[in-house]
Design a protein that fits this description.
Among the domains are: 143 residues, no CATH class; 95 residues, no CATH class. Helix content is 29%, strand content 25%. The protein contains 13 helices and 23 strands.
Length: 647
Amino acid sequence: MGRKTKVRKTFLRSLLRDRTANTIAISAAALVPVLAMVGGGIDASRYFMTAARMQAACDAGALAARRAMVDDTFSAEHRQVGLNFFDQNFNDGMFGIESRVRDFTSDDEGTVTGTASGRLPTSIMAAFGFEEFNLSVTCSAEINISNTDIMFVLDVTGSMAGSKIVGLRDAVMGFYDTVEDATADAAQVRYGFVPYSQQANVGFLLPREHMANSHTYQSRVARFREEFTFIPGNGIKVGDEMVLSDQTEWLPRDIANFGTGGTNNYRFRNSGSSARTAAQNFCWNDLPGTYTIGGDTWEVSNTQYVTGVWSGGSSNNRAGCRGRVRKTRIATQDDVIEDQTIRNVVWQDYLYCPVDTDDDTPCDVTNPADSPPGWETVDLSTLYDDNQIMLPTGNQGAMVNHVWDGCVEEAATVSTDTYNPLPAGAFDININLVPANEAQRWKPALRNAVWKRENPGNMLGWLAQTGNQARPGYTCPAPARRLAEITRGDLQTYVNSLVPTGQTYHDIGMVWGARFISPRGIFAADNETAPNGDAIARHIVFMTDGAQVNSVENYSTQGIEWWDRRITGDGNGTREFNRRAARLQAACRAARQENITVWVVAFGTTLTQNLIDCASPGRAFEANDPAALNDRFREIAQQIAALRLTQ
């Protein structure tokens, strides 16, 4: 036994004295805090990564659910959209999560709120009594619009009649409601409108200095011819005796009554022997002689007493006295009539032509012998006082009052097939045009001062005829509205005023929509900045229900193409169609270059490539019926509105 004890003591002493054994003990003691530190880092990283991913999934679900809502109404379908987006970003069991719970709800103001929670088991810290983490996140999303300008360019041509125009009105109102519900209190949201067909009614919105002072119209001049008639004089000289008359007349029974009227002064006695004898003697003996009556000389002779001359009155006084009365006067200058020639101006015909005051044209009106005075088409200055002007375009050159309806003829352009880049002289497509001369100014369209010239063999030249020529096709849509804030009631009144008529000139509508919203050009002062100083988002919503339709005999913003030839150069209808399609692209391109988003909706018609190319990328839509149009407008309104996370 003693030996065993000795051995044990020796081993223990050796172990205590052996310094190499200390490392094992120290390492074992240090392992616990190191494990806690490393495990805590790993599990903490898992926690933060899981929480961040869960928050991102919540945000995505809230944004998706809110974007799916048409208005502030939240349905089970919208909730499911949010859940689906959450699951795509954070599926059940991801990172080892357990008891995952997620949900999406909404308040009455359209704000979508999401919540999510779950348990995340620890991997290492469980050894130290920390078995799980409890995670929870919240999120919310709402649509909130900042400064925004929205210009509607609306096709109101004849094909929009009936249910289509009603659907358009409803769609615009739905768009307005969607945007207004999402507008921030401090934001400025303005709306503008350009209804278009083959014209755009913009004239009353343009500053006076940008309107032309003169213009040439495809009109007519009433022509007159001179006729001369010779009238000889009377051959009388001053001092000559003039015979005024020499005839038998009834004579009065009293010399004082010469030259008077009335029957009573001319009744002579025809009963009672003495009274009758006296009357006869007065007639035969006393009345003959010379008398001065009012400066004239009357010579009375050959008198006769006649019974039974008069009726009525006293039967005793029915006789009369008649005789030759020669009336003369000494001629004065007033009595002398000289030989003379009478000039009469007689209407001849109308000369149909471009009326101006250029001496070199067939329809020059500077010669008063060719036309009545006052036909001065170059002078439009008086029109702008009250939007009307008198011109001699009526029957046989009669003056007619022409009332301007607000539609315009465009600035000068160039005849070309290429609009990219835009030719320098194509002022009529320049959306930032600020006129500096007459060629660049806009002209009032005067529909009743223009005619066609349907003259076989010479339709381009002037035409003389006595009848009325036909009028070109013309329509002037409802007045456009510049960008401004608008109440719902005023907007409803405005869209109700839209009346469908005319043909489809897409380029005209787009050019003016872009001009009204551009931060440069004639309306730059109103469009550059917003009152709160924040940036402005600019959008054009271009809606049409049909393909482009033009006619060279329409009166449009470029005049009457067959006769004015401003676009084609030769009046060719196919060339006008192709060039107007290219002009639409030029206007759309110019708008996009101003950082304006262009949305295009084809309503009940095919979304052509030309319309697709006009829109900003991904911003072209089709709407087959009024209900679909309403949906597209609301969809555009939602995309214009800025979805944002509020938590």
